[in-house]
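Hi P.,

Sorry for the delay on this. The queue was packed all week, but I finally got your sequence through. Input first:
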Amino acid sequence: IKINAEIADDEQEQMKGLMFREKLNENEGMLFVFENEQYQTFWMKNTLIPLDMIFIDENFKIVDIKNAAPCKEEPCVLYKSSKPAKYVLEVNENLTAKKSIRIGDRIALNKG
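Then the structure:
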């Protein structure tokens, strides 16, 4: 499976993420790239579409997957990785189930 992902590799892009988007095409997503591998925590404030959050370690192995619903009122649920992650890939809800993406799988990053 190939996902065309926007890259969020600075603090401003990471804070905005997929907020206010009304739609995400099936094989599209956003890849958050962090400087260090650590426990990552996300929330869905101002996010309008349900997502799968795929937490990936520095060796490109999937260490956790969370199904995240839009936050309609505060306090918003926090989605914390169960293991340290360097990358987080957000995709449409249930894409991981549809494509049989599982914890322990490896990913490859390709530019272009």
